[in-house]
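fwd from M.: "can u put these together and see what the complex looks like"

so here's what she sent:
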Amino acid sequence: MRVEPMPPELAIAHEPGVAKPDPVLKIGGMRRAFGGLRAVDIDHLEIQRNTITSIIGPNGAGKTTLFNLLTGFETPDQGNYSLDGDLLVGVPAHQVAQRGMVRTFQLTKVLPGLSVLENMLVAARVQPGASFRGAILGGWRGAERENEKQAREILERFGLTAMTDEFAGRLSGGQRKLLEMARALMVRPTVVMLDEPTAGVNPKLVQSLLEHVKGLRDSGMTVLFVEHDMDVVQSISDWVVVVAEGHVIAEGPPAVIARNPAVIEAYLGKHRGEDVA
Amino acid sequence: MDWMQILAAGVLAIIGPITAGYALSAIGLNLQFGYAGLLNFGHVAFMLVGAYGMAMTVEFGGPLWLGIIVGLAAAVLLGLLVGIPTLRLRADYFAITSIAVAEVLRLVVRSSAAGDVTGGVFGLQGFGGAFHALNPFPATELYGIAPFVVTGRTMWVIVVGWALVILATLFIARLINSPWGRVLRAIREDEDATRSLGRNVFAYKLQSLMIGGALAGLAGMVFALNQQSIHPDAFMPQITFMLFVMVILGGAGSIWGPVIGTALFNFLFYSTDRLMAQLQANVDWVGDVLSPAEAALIKFILVGIALMLLMVFRPQGLLRSRDEGRTDAS
């Protein structure tokens, strides 16, 4: 049921702030400063629905701050941004998630003292027993069974079935990344934001992680992710947004971005051609 | 040396109103600290407003049942007042604010300015008449087998107090075993992660503060009715810290942990108290080294040592599994 993300023949300009045919996220005039440092300063940015859009940029470019702003973990000094036309400014983090935009963290945040299954269930969207009233009155077990079934299916897809009843604190680093992604799906999101999902994961697991990321897109979600590994970005992105010093300095398909001189200068340094690895 | 008497002091402390009262308060603290991860260093304040809410209502001519409602409402309201400005902030701000609120409340209640309504340093007496009038046990009759004996009057407090402890435990078990309780434990593990999954962390923390506060308020009433008198200096900050010891001893974040921890704490506390008093009076060299007042302080040292041993050998408390206590493998 793959919805063709952004047809190659669709001619949109490869320039910062270009309008997309079907944007799920729209950002306008967003600013956030920490003291004198302009961490995020974006005039206009749109994210096309049902694509994998990578956000790349040097350390300190404002990628994580952008994530925090979009998901309600921080508030911008000014600007507006909307998800599917709903304004998100001033919406607290938990409501952003309820509206269908869910994030992961650069430093993986599993709930170590809860079992893997419980980690999944905390995130389940429809949960009458999660309110105080619901917990007292009871009658939530039907929904709980449904959620548990869904959780087990997702865990199976992510290869975590064997760990279902283990404490999440027992998982390896890579498994935690997988669990975080799997858990995000329990929210039934339309947009999934992954903050460096491959950081600190061994190369073999990176491949399976990326397959899962593609799987999210192929099942109709929009994936927005921050990544440092250019090979990863090249291999799975439909669209790349380059951020440097808080600004969007370029955007376009990965092949075009790789040749963009401004990007090469900002991201790879001026001394290209020299082997810095 | 009368060993039976020492044992009796410990056993009576376990079954008596003291353990019932502390256990009720510890159940509330366990919900906040053990499940939601809140560092409420002002828990005793909730006991104070519960006890004073009830006593003052009766003092002003209200019926006892109204006093109980007022005391409970006051404790819940205190949770709201303390929680709303501080629970959005980092955990340490809440901890500092809570201990300050507790001390400010105690000092206000004992001030001479408030003396007309609170009784100042002398407190309030004789508000429990209606409670003891309901006592089905003849007040002066003795119950139990010597030396484990209580009066009918105490028996009444024990029955009501322990009924409340059991009800409170079942109530908390129902909450904790629901998805609501799962969210609470998730908050203890990682607030930001829980928030990112669509849960209103602030609301859950506020709810646990109010529910735990209400239980502490009830505990304050049990103490007040048992002694038929309250005075502000019974609500010193160390009560909160003793409650923390009880909760950690039994196992923070377990359903029966606070009850077991409270019983064990009180057994050790009251039996060593009697033990040291007897040693001081009957053993010559102990009598030479320690005065009666010094001997009475030894129990605090022993409690400290017991807590240290627990932290070294069983940091997760008595009732929690080792795995759960040490969850993060990395």
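replying to her w this: Chain B is about 75% helix and 5% strand.
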